[in-house]
Amino acid sequence: MRIGISTRMMLNERLQPSLLNKLLDTIPDMVSAAIAIEIFAARQHFDYTDREHVAELASWFTQHKITPWGLHAPKFPDREMGRAGAPSVNLLHPEKSRRIDAIDEVKRAMETAELLRFQHLVVALGEQGEGWSPRTLENALTALEHLDAFARPLGVCILVKNGMNEASLPERLVEILNVGHLTRVGLCLDLGHAHATCGIPAALAAAGRIVAVRMHDNRGFRDEHLWPGKGSIDWSQTRAVVTAAAGDPLWIVDATQPDWAALPALAQ
Q1: What is the pLDDT of residue 108?
Q2: What is residue 6's predicted lDDT score, i.e. its pLDDT?
Q3: So what's the pLDDT on residue 28?
Q4: In which residue ranges of the chain is pLDDT below 70?
Q5: Which terminal residue of the chain, N or C, has fewer Cβ atoms less than 10 Å from its own Cβ?
Q6: pLDDT of residue 33
């Protein structure tokens, strides 16, 4: 089982070499030797618009002979995660200008692959409560086609993840990719989101396109991002059925409160 860590766990701290050193020092040795890192693109954490900041991180990864596995696309374009009134990065927004702004913001973050050399970009479609319609399908296709075209010369593969809305249920994502013949775009199965929406068994309908799996827990009603085992997901059973259906995806720990001592058990 390949384990990854999302830096979302440290979202309120600036991502810098000292923080990455602390991360490696904290993770148990048996896991840290093969850990994959996903950088979470939030400007207060990772300022993808700051060339010096990006270069500093790229230098750290080079020195440690680690290639960041991927980048999670930004949810907001500001440093306050929208609390100061900035609009969200919504690729499915009804207004065309907002969709264009969202695509541009994701591209801005993806450009950092020139220095960081990550190979995957995880994107979300829509916001909580987003519905499904032919127009939603059209907007999703347009966004993913643009992002895929931008990603190709950077050597990046787009992974779209299921969310807390009808528009990004796993079955909808498979439909989007099939209708658009988006053969380079894969899926990132978010188990926490699936557990609180359609259920994990139903989400495995997308198994043929799954490249990565996000691990966080909840009690089945809302998105809590608890450490695996702190909610109501049966992780032993889930690991078995996902592995049987999807083969050997990367399992990314995406909880907000890390429990590093419990990490080796997840990797077994």
Answers
A1: 98
A2: 95
A3: 73
A4: 29-34
A5: C
A6: 60
The Cα 141–Cα 92 span in angstroms is 10
User: Residue 92: which of 50, 48, 53, 124 has the closest Cα?
Assistant: 124
The closest of 102, 161, 99, 178 to 136, measured between CA atoms, is: 99
Of 89, 159, 165, 99, the residue nearest 132 (C-alpha): 165
Beta-strand runs (E) in 51-149 = 70-72, 120-124
Length of the chain: 268
Taking the C-alpha atoms of residue 44 and residue 171, their distance in angstroms, rounded to an integer, is 34
pLDDT score of 120: 98
Neighbours of 113 (CB within 10 A): 21
Q: If DSSP codes are grouped into helix, strand and coil, which group holds residue 186?
A: strand
Which residues are paired to 256 by β-bridges?
none
CA 107 to chain centre: 15
CATH number of 2-267: 3.20.20.150
Q: Looking at residue 170, what is its pLDDT? A: 96
Query: What secondary structure letter does DSSP report for 221?
Result: S
Q: For residue 263, what pLDDT is reported?
A: 83
Looking at residue 67, its pLDDT comes to 87
- Taking alpha carbons only, the member of 216, 260, 227 closest to residue 27 is 260
